[in-house]
Design a protein that fits this description.
The structure holds two protein chains of two kinds. Chain A has helices spanning 2-11, 13-52, 66-73, 98-107, 140-146, 172-178, 209-212, 220-226, 246-254, 264-267, 269-307, 309-317, 322-357, 376-402, 406-413, and strands at residues 55-58, 62-63, 89-91, 111-126, 129-138, 153-156, 167-171, 185-189, 196-204, 215-219, 235-240, 260-263, 359-364, 367-369. By secondary structure, chain A is an alpha+beta fold. Chain A has two domains: 2-48 and 271-413, no CATH class; 60-66 and 89-258, no CATH class. Chain A has a six-stranded mixed barrel, surrounded by four helices. Chain B has a single domain (2-221), classed as P-loop containing nucleotide triphosphate hydrolases (Rossmann fold, 3-Layer(aba) Sandwich), CATH 3.40.50. Classes of the chains: A alpha+beta, B alpha/beta. The A-B interface holds A 3-4, 7-8, 10-11, 310-311, 313-315, 317-322, 324, 405-407, 410, 413-414 and B 44, 48, 53-54, 73-74, 77-82, 84, 86, 88-90, 92-97, 101, 105-106, 108-109, 152, 164.
């Protein structure tokens, strides 16, 4: 039946080409949209993971509350109405027992790496120019294991911070704002004590203006000294073997401590919601596209079967059973699905390559091109979906054709 | 061996309308039988019943000692594929296939198309359309198309040919030629032919004539 199926398709070049195009268009659209969505998602995830890690352990902030102070100043029987209620941070967030965490994380088989950090706010000064920054003290070798920040270094390397010695890496926006360059020495202050000189040993450019305008990285020991808080760790970033375990592990670890342990998904709940919405949208769109493509196959095959009734009758009368007739049209659906799917893969890939060439007026990550994913799973999904749509769409008309008896067709013709 | 019909009754519709009334027939191997009658007399219905395309409402039809109603679908398909050749009023050729490919459709179902190719060319020669081997149906005349259909019916060297008004769509010259071909096949190959026609002249060319009126056999002549 393969032979006949091919001959029938070749004899209807226009119809065949139209279905081919319908299926390939659907496949192509899926690839382009999924490529863009996954590309953006990858970019955003990377950006977020550079800052939040798979699991983030941080000291919980303690605030002064009314109920704590009330018994110290007033007896139980007095009604108190505060004109200015007591408020404010008790102290900066810090981990209670960082070493305890290090020991735990070192032993946990789910952990790939971890990196302690101290995050504080400060001011960087270069001559007359001042700029407020978010200073993060890191252990360079450990930080490099859990983030891809090294990939975003325009000058220098995170390794330059190893060993301390008052060195700093600044975001490209910060450098621009204070008119400094790598190699210059700037002053850093936190408001506590005197400003200290730091040598700029690197330039970081994440392509995210908000980050590039405030980012300052230093060796954790230098930043602890600058902040007059030796040994203090405000957070530990943890990288896991399986990121999907982040929620479960965060929940488990939070049982041991008062520190705040957040899984990646919890810390980025909004982002996860956005991803879910994106997934739903993509599924709806894919469904709609495949429905249209499938309907095209169904329509054309149904029309063709109607036109081919006489031929079906003769095939049945010379001994071709219903199974053979079913095969005849299923083969055609299969070829249309495979051909259209393959063509769609090629078109989708080609269009994505073209889009990749398009230069944006702003930067996204490392450059100013659209982040497009070429993940193989997108292409596999698109191809399989095209086959399923074509398969289902061809099955029903094929089954209807196989049920036709030669006699009812012959009688129709007479 | 033969085709035997006993008390064949065929009804259609609701309420049932009887189209054939207690038909009895006996067609021997190598016979040439014509079934004729006016339009609506039931001649085509009778042909479809004895050719396994349809089942009677009542009665028994035996072919080569087997009761058709007791044959399963596989047996019927195999029987049609190997023992039967059909020729219809409309040639029913597959428009995307050449004459040769159309003729070889039956053998292709049994993977015998390569083996039967020589015989197909022989048939085309015999039917005087050897110059049409690679032509599509749309490139041939009605008479030539019907001859290709006859070649398709003969390719498996069937024991039976069932022809339903094979000349109905042809001009008189082509019609006579088709009838001559059928006679030759019957004479030379001893193929049993059952022909439905409303043309008395063609019916008279058969060895046995069955004349139907309103679903009943008015006369059967040998």
């Amino acid at each position: 039946m393969l032979y006949l199926a091919v001959r029938q398709m070749l004899s209807r070049k226009r119809q065949t080409a139209l279905i081919f195009l319908g299926i390939s268009f659907g496949t192509m659209i899926y690839i382009v949209i999924a490529g863009l969505q996954f590309g953006f998602r990858g970019y955003l995830t990377e950006q977020l993971l550079n800052n939040t890690a798979h699991v983030l352990i941080k000291g919980s902030e303690q605030n002064i509350e009314e109920k704590e102070l009330r018994p110290r100043f007033f007896s139980k029987n007095i009604f108190v109405k505060w004109i200015t209620p007591p408020a404010g941070k008790r102290q900066e967030a810090k981990l209670g027992n960082p070493q305890g965490w290090f020991d735990l994380l070192q032993k946990d088989p789910n952990v790939v790496a971890y990196a302690p950090r101290l995050s504080i706010n400060g001011i960087v000064t270069n001559g007359r120019y001042r700029h407020s920054v978010g200073i993060t003290g890191i252990v360079p070798t450990k930080q490099m294991k859990i983030t891809s920040l090294e990939d975003y270094m325009l000058n220098g390397s995170l390794k330059n911070l190893a060993g301390g010695g008052s060195k700093i890496i600044l975001g490209s926006g910060v450098l621009k704002s204070i008119g400094a360059k790598v190699g210059d020495t700037v002053k850093l202050s936190t408001g506590l004590g005197e400003a200290r000189p730091f040598k700029i040993v690197g330039k970081l450019h994440l392509g995210n203006e908000q980050m590039d305008d405030v980012m300052a990285l230093g060796n954790i020991r230098d930043i602890q000294a600058l902040n007059h808080t030796p040994g203090r760790v405000s957070e530990i970033s943890v990288a896991l073997i399986d990121i999907s375990l982040s929620g479960t592990l965060a929940e488990k670890w939070s049982l041991y401590t008062k520190d705040k342990v957040q899984g990646w998904e919890e810390a980025n709940a909004q982002f996860m919601q956005m991803i879910t919405i994106q997934d739903i949208m993509r599924l709806i769109m894919t469904g709609a596209i495949l429905l249209v493509a499938g309907f095209g196959v169904y329509n054309v095959l149904s029309i063709m079967i109607n036109q081919k009734k006489k031929e079906i009758a003769i095939l049945r009368s010379i001994g071709y059973g219903p199974d053979k007739i079913l095969q005849l049209f299923l083969y055609q659906g299969f070829f249309l699905g495979v051909g259209g799917g393959l063509l769609g893969l090629f078109f989708g890939w080609g269009l994505n390559m073209l889009l990749l060439q398009y230069e944006l007026s702003f930067e996204v990550g490392r450059d100013n091109h659209l982040p497009i994913s070429f993940d193989i799973s997108i292409y596999v999904t698109a191809f399989v979906a095209a086959q399923v749509a074509a398969g289902i769409a061809s099955f029903f008309p094929a089954r209807a054709a196989s049920k036709l008896t030669p006699l009812e067709i012959i009688r129709e013709e007479l | 061996m033969a085709i035997i019909g006993k008390n064949i009754i065929k009804e259609f519709g609701v309420p049932p309308q009887r189209v054939l009334h207690n038909i009895n027939l006996h067609i021997d191997d190598g016979d040439f039988v014509s079934i004729s009658g006016r339009s609506g007399s039931g001649k085509s219905t009778l042909l479809y019943l004895i050719s396994t395309l349809d089942n009677p409402t009542q009665g028994i039809i035996e072919i080569d000692g087997k009761i058709i109603a007791q044959m399963n679908q596989q047996e019927i398909h195999h029987f049609r594929n190997t023992q039967v050749g059909f020729i219809f009023q409309f040639h029913f050729l597959l428009p995307e296939l050449t004459s040769l490919e159309n003729i070889l459709l039956g053998p292709r179902n049994l993977d015998l198309h390569e083996e039967k190719k020589g015989f197909a060319l022989e048939l085309l020669e015999k039917l005087e359309i050897s110059d049409q081997v690679h032509k599509l149906p749309s490139q041939m005349s009605g008479g030539q198309q019907q001859r290709v259909a006859i070649a398709r019916a003969l390719i498996m060297r069937p024991k039976y040919i069932f022809a339903d008004e094979p000349t109905g769509n042809l001009d008189s010259v082509s019609g006579i030629r088709v009838m001559e071909i059928l006679k030759e096949i019957n004479k030379n190959d001893k193929t049993t032919i059952v022909l439905v026609t409303h043309e008395p002249d063609y019916a008279a060319m058969a060895k046995q004539e069955i004349f139907l009126v309103d679903g009943k056999v008015l006369r059967a002549e040998s």
